[in-house]
């Protein structure tokens, strides 16, 4: 998914994705500490959860940025003309 240069220049949405995914992964790791799992499986499950959340949020953020782009010349903000 490509973004226009103006939308792609802001790192804030992608920093927020990393922070949210990291916090969720850390909480998953801490929660699994209450189980009887060893260190390896706990870390693997927490890493898989972090990756799943990060990929899902990335896809959502990029698709929303493409849909709501208001910069001129972006192919997704052109208004279709209707022939009457």
Summary, kept brief:
The chain contains three helices and no strands. With 84 residues, it is mainly α.
Structure description:
The chain has 84 residues and is an all-alpha fold. The chain has helices at residues 5-8, 12-32, 39-67. Helix 2 (12-32) runs antiparallel to helix 3 (39-67). It is rod-shaped. The model has no long low-confidence stretch (mean pLDDT 81).
**CA-based gyration radius:** 19 Å
**What portion of residues is helical?**
55-70%
Q: Give the averaged pLDDT, no decimals.
A: 81
Overall body shape = rod-shaped
Number of strands: 0
Number of helical stretches of at least 4 residues: 3
Coarse structural class: mainly alpha
Order of helices and strands: HHH
Described by strand count, sense and barrel closure, the largest sheet is: none
Q: Quote the beta fraction.
A: under 5%
- Ends apart, CA distance between termini: 34 Å
List low-confidence stretches.
none
SSE layout:
Layout: H1 5-8, H2 12-32, H3 39-67
Helix pairs in contact: 2-3
Quickly list its features:
single chain; 84 residues; mainly alpha; 64% helix; 0% strand; rod-shaped
């Amino acid at each position: 998914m490509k973004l226009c240069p103006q939308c792609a220049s802001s790192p804030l949405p992608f920093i927020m994705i990393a922070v949210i995914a990291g916090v969720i992964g850390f909480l998953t790791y801490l929660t699994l500490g209450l189980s009887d799992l060893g260190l390896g499986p706990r870390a693997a499950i927490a890493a898989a959860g972090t990756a799943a959340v990060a990929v899902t949020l990335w896809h959502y953020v990029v698709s929303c940025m493409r849909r709501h782009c208001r910069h001129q010349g972006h192919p997704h903000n052109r208004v279709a003309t209707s022939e009457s």
